[in-house]
Design a protein that fits this description.
Order of helices and strands: HHHHEEHHHHHHHHHHH
Strand order of the largest sheet: 1-2
Oligomer: single chain
Distance between the termini: 14 Å
Radius of gyration: 24 Å
Length: 341
């Protein structure tokens, strides 16, 4: 297992290099004056654009520029974001916890319910339960997230006054930003518990209910259908028929043999799904006025904030590469026969 992980880590180097090359190539569409903001840490530096262009060789050939840009990225300098008036690296750190908190509650529900419903649908094929779960999956997958979010807001917040948008109420926001509250993780629910403020924990949970429900309803359908298809394929294989013919209990066949093999496809989808959620759920965060990294990215794009958009793209590439690595490692854990080719 250790050598497998080391080889997978070594393979990440060319993948990351290729991703950074592509991202930097996109930046070449802009003039050297516009690209100068990729290298500054303070907006005052932008007063000396000519010096920045000369210092970072922005008029030189592509690979010379790339080496200077990559050196700055490795130092943590992703440029200055004019949309939030702070360095891009700091903006990512500021906005990521909100999205991470959303994913913390949504992803486990999506994965657990998606796999569970897929297994139930496959093991009860062509029964009312199968038809019901498949119908729910089709409905969930067909719903536009912005429409579902608006409907949930209109019903639960507009009619019943429950589950407001945003991350916290005004009272909770004032307390959280006061010196009495220590920000350990910038995740409101976690920090509220660590500070012993249960009322803030409840307040933050109320604000999470609708965006989490939107993400679960939309995304659970894909995982459920993938799991169902994989389960049906495994259940039709010869080893399953042999096990049943020998009188092995059907629950043992399904739980110990079929599910384990069918889980590989579900793992792939779960990993990529979690990575895509971490990279920002733009529409959901916008509908619920939830200031996560997706909310920041879309506003940066609207304002043509080039360093912020490129920084966000680089961050997304890193998240997907890391998710693929974790999925590969889990492959080897679920099925020890899988080796690096």
């Amino acid at each position: 297992m250790r050598s497998y992980i080391i080889r997978r880590l070594l393979l990440l180097v060319p993948v990351l290099l290729g991703a950074t090359l592509l991202i930097f190539a996109v930046s070449q569409m802009f003039s050297p004056v516009e690209r100068a903001s990729l290298y500054v840490r303070d907006p005052k530096q932008l007063r000396n654009i000519d010096e920045i262009i000369k210092k970072y060789h922005l008029d030189d050939p592509f690979f010379i520029q790339f080496s200077h840009w990559l050196a700055e990225v490795l130092k943590g300098n992703l440029g200055w974001s004019k949309s939030v008036n702070m360095p891009v690296a700091r903006a990512i750190v500021e906005f990521l916890p909100a999205t991470a908190e959303l994913v913390l509650y949504a992803a486990p529900l999506i994965i657990f319910l998606g796999i569970k419903m897929g297994v139930l649908s496959a093991t009860h094929r062509n029964t009312p339960l199968d038809h019901a779960t498949r119908t729910l999956a089709i409905i969930g997958w067909s719903l536009p997230s912005f429409w579902l979010g608006i409907v949930l807001l209109a019903v639960f917040y507009g009619v019943f006054g429950l589950f407001p948008p945003g991350r916290l109420s005004v009272e909770a926001s004032i307390y959280v930003n006061s010196p009495n509250f220590i920000r350990y993780t910038k995740l409101n629910t976690i920090d509220a518990l660590l500070n012993g403020q249960f009322w803030i924990f409840v307040d933050a949970l109320k604000h999470l209910v609708l965006p989490v429900a939107t993400l679960v309803i939309i995304n659970i359908a894909l995982l459920m259908r993938i799991t169902r298809s994989s389960m049906l394929e495994e259940m039709s294989k010869l080893y399953v028929m042999m096990a049943r013919a020998k009188g092995l209990d059907d629950k043992v066949v399904v739980n110990k043999h079929v599910q384990r093999n069918a889980l590989i496809s579900a793992l792939t989808v779960s990993g990529l799904l979690t990575a895509s959620l971490l990279c920002g759920v733009v529409i959901t965060e916008t509908v619920f006025n939830y200031h996560g990294i997706g909310y920041w990215a879309v506003h940066a794009a609207i304002q043509l904030d080039i360093p912020a958009v490129l920084g966000f793209t680089l961050f997304s590439a890193l998240i997907f590469v890391a998710a693929n690595l974790i999925v590969d490692i889990m492959y080897a854990y679920v099925d020890p026969r899988i080796k690096l080719g």
